[in-house]
Amino acid sequence: MRIRLLRTLLWAWYGVLATLVGIGLAHLAAALTDPAASPVLAVGSTVIDLTPTPMKEWAIRTFGSADKTILVGSVLAGVLVLAALAGVLARRRFALGAAVLVALVGVAAVAVLTRPEAGPLDLLPCVVAAVTAPAALRLLARTHEEAARRDDGRRTVLLTITAVAATAALGGIAGRVVSRLRARPEDVALPAPADPAPPLPRGLDDQVPGITRFRTPNTDFYRVDTRLDVPVLSADDWTLTIDGDVGRKVTLTFDELLAMPMVERDITLTCVSNSVGGPYVGGARWLGVPLTDVLDLAGIGSTRADQILSTDFAGMTISTPLALATDGRDALVAVGMNGKALPREHGFPVRLVIPGLYGFISATKWLTRLTLTTYDKKQAYWTERDWATDAPIKISARIDTPKALAELDAGDVVVGGVAWAQERGGIAGVQVRLDGGPWVDAQLGPDGGDDYWRQWFHRWSAEPGSHRIAVRAVAGNGEPQTAVRAEPFPNGASGLHELLVRVS
Asked: Residue 404 is part of a domain; what is its CATH number?
């Protein structure tokens, strides 16, 4: 009985190894063509599109920035369970095991072809997987069968398993290396801004331990999007098309965009999925061409459109109210972030940055098209999922230090954090409340502009016991932060950030 179980597990392992070979080599083929066509990523992206909004919000709240890793891992785990079944079936009849592997690839092929911008070449990784996975399974099966008739059979099986596993690993590693070597953002030389931003004041980073940095480093900037992979796009091949209800259709190359007058602005971005006190907000210095300058190239003076439908390289769409995008705010077709070309994770080579609007209606990454149209004619990805079409960022303040449930020593305690109120005159004040008492004015850090967040801190003489700390912000136009609690769906979270600490 034990020997029979071990043999079954060995054949299941053959199925897993064969599938990993197909996945690894398919990933390499995708890296050479289009990384989004990698079978596992294509299936994962389809799962994201089909997932109900409440479940997506739950995943973001529960897993944070690890949600994509967990999703890819879940898809891969499911595939490998079926791969193990294929190996077990191949022990009885090879054709059955191979059929399961080909069926798995077929599911991935459907996911690839249903992408909006899919083309025939995108099927190449699936073809590679459909050929190499059954071939690897055949090799393992034949080696196993021949080993039973040879004295050194066990050694031959182990060598074959090792070779197959190495092929799978090398394919996956080579795919990652190739992807990173293609079209590197660090090779792009950005022009100097015609309208530079003033020097950003020195923040409270070194004065208040634990407070969020005044400028978020590119490597620490939050990332929330529907992509499972990091797209690899070439600036040399990139174009931006402006079409729809315009005077004339215009297509710009990357060099033509860089030749336009650039402006530099300090802008804070916020994700609509950010809960009260959440991490999905960051401040950076952006370099780009004013969105209105780009739209003017196509002539929009007499347009009947009420939205800009922006499209990324893979067909993902985001809708922005035209009136808000062109009302005088510093909306940018951005190419730079904190003095460098955009990182791949944040939209290289080009993205939208529109202050004062949540990212799901304003911050299209990997931008390739701007279409002037109406909400009646076209619906974007999030609009189809019942998110709001008009979503200004809500006034918010966050406590960075101390952390919730922290154990503190009695005496002088510094409470600090950040606050933001874009398109409302910036932050005019922040107030702190302890244990339900009166609101007390906090001290504000330097002002980085109306579209930038502001650090704040309050010194508190803490006494032993449990204490509740709350914070609220007041905008420059006098509007206070609301205490009414709301979930992120459909137009952003609201409410006051409160937390408990214990002092001993």
From this structure: 2.60.40.650
